[in-house]
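hey so i finally got around to running the thing on that chain from the lab meeting. sorry it took forever, my laptop kept dying and i had to restart like 3 times. anyway pasting the input first so we r on the same page abt which one it is
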Amino acid sequence: MLAGRKQSIAPLSVEAQGATVETLLSSSEYREFAEEDFDPTQYATRVIQAPTDSPYHGLDITTSLAKLSFGIDHLNKHIQEQVSTHYEDLLQQVSGLSDIEGILASVKQGVHSLNTSLHRVRDKVLTPYQDMQDRTLQLERIQTTAEILRRLIRFMYLLRRLDVQLPGGERELPKAALTVCELIEIAQDPELDGIDIVDAEKPGVMQAKQKITTDGEELLHRGMAMQNQTDIAAGLQVFFNLNQLAAETKTVCDGMLHAITQEMQMALDPVAVNREIKESSPPRRNVGSPAAIVQAVTPVKLWTRVEHLMDVIYDNANKVYQMYRVLKRKKDSATHKLFADEVAEGLESDLLDYFWRGLSTSFERELRLGTKSSQGLLHEFQTGYPRLLRLVHNVFTRLSVANGADFSSDGQIPDSILVLQSLSPLETSYLSRSLSRLLEPINAAFPDRIGLAIRMPPSRDDVDKVIRTLGSELEAAKFDPHLLQAVARNASKAIKMYWTKCEQYCNVDANLQQIVTAGTATHGQLLVIESINCLWYMQDGVYKVLTEFSGSGLDDTFNEILKGISRALQGMVEPLFSQITREFESSILKIHKEDLASRFASPTRGQSESSTSQYVGEFASKVRWVHRELLSKLQCGDESREWIRSLGRRIVEYFLRHASLVRPADEGVGRLLASDMTHLEFVLSQWFAALGMKLDRDLGDSYKALRAFRHMPFLDIPQVTALRTSQNVPPSIIIHHLLARAHPHMPFPTLLYAWSEAQYSDWLDARSEDEALQILARCLDAYAAEIRQKGGVPRPEYNAAVQMLKEIAAEK
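ok and heres what got predicted. didnt touch it at all, straight out
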């Protein structure tokens, strides 16, 4: 009821009051008092202090108080107006308060009833809860006590078991270690602190642990020394049961590294080496004995110490490998985790990696200190680096045989890479000295002859020294693929320097290389010949040396060396043979200056005068001179014959080309050409016979074409075209002959393009056989066009040439 009355009255009152409040708040005089954070004290302070931004600035306190009093009176007046205006609503509000009091009384009675019920429920629940809480606490205490008692019983049981296991010897040692580990774990429980039985037994348990640890160490060391994996496994199991596997493994490994380091210090200590020499050397009777004896003994003593050091490294490394093999096989029976993985977690790396890293670090440090303090030690290790490297390889080879270690692709055990890296400074020095040794005989073979008028090429003895040095350096490094590769690179540099110097020796004035068939060969020509011989001898010697090292992974390097020598040799040979070829070609070109037709038709010439042309005699004299002065001095084995074979083929092919251009190609001129070819063949045969060669065997198809061309002027046209397949005569030669037969009716390329025979020949050298046939086809087309224009009949030579070109095109 009250709620209904409030709902009917409140909206009007609230609406009217809200409008009044808004009207008051809109006034600047009351806005500050309506703020939520209004503080009277701060307001009074501002009024008293009256800052410049305050409305009371410049007023005294009395005026401010009067202003406040006026505001209060204004508010009171406004309140009275509101009361007088809404008195009916206020009376209705007062009349509804009696109904609200009745409702409140009933609510209070209900709340009292609810509290009474709550007290009754709490009394029923609280007592059982407190009882259960007490019983639960008692149960927890009973369980805790029972657990402590159980641990005490277990502790006593383990003590009795330990008393039985300790006298059991090495067989019971792992079990005793497991028992002691559990006893220590129980004794360290904070809940058992202060229990007399536990405190009394703690010293005995620790003594048992110490004894088990000592016996386990002895068992482990004895197993590694005797290579007994059963003892090693038992020792490792002891420390695994003691939760000390990683720590003990690290201790054993560090002990081995310390022993090796001490041995390194002894082996690489120059003072100790000299002291040992003095102690072992007999007293000198002769005061003037040479000091070289001591210097000879020092390397022996040094290498003896190094060999002993390698034996120590092998012994300790073999022990580590034995232990590692056992760790890789054994695993935790509960978690099936390998012992090796647990050790790796404790060492933060693999056991073998930890050992070899520590050894390589110590080896590098001791080598650096030893060589820094003694120049003699440094010199001995630099010059004898292969021996040191061989000793290191021997260690890992023995380890691989004993433990089955795997080799990498370059023939090295992966573990050896760390140790070999510590030798890198010595390797660098050795390779530098090795390169110097390789370059020394080369520099001696090419002395600096500035100021001398005559330069001399290296002799065979100089080349032999280079080859012997090369073989010696490769032989010293062949046991190690990496070192052999490095030495091979040095050899490549040295040999490249050799052929570079040879090329420089051949760079003489071009005028000195001109071939003049009168007199003897010039010094420049002989220098080129000797340089070629020496470079070929070097190539042959290097090939024999490198053949001994084939299959060692250096085939690519060796092939590059041989290819480089071959390119250099070819670069020296080609200019010489090009000059010789030009001389021979200049004589053959004079065939076009011979008036063969006039010679054959002239009745005043005798048979002897007309049998041989002048150019053939000139060619023969040049061949004899070149053979005597130049080619007979080439001593390059089969390659000399190959060069001469290529020269002979070029001469024959060049002669056939220009002989086929001789016009007219009738029987009379053919007889003269046949005579010239017979003499040419005789000259070439004598030349080749002097070199142990034969024309038919060494010139092949070129010689057959020469023999066939001799009879070509006397054959019918079908027989001539058949020579292309029967005697391998080039088609361009046959078409030249057909054009020469039809002279002057069918044009030659020289006439069609206004070329000389030499220019046409140069054009043919720069083009292929197909391009030569194309230009000859243009000549035939020009002839055919002229015949069609005149309305004549083509000559049979034209028909034969066109038919042959068609056959060649069909074959392609």
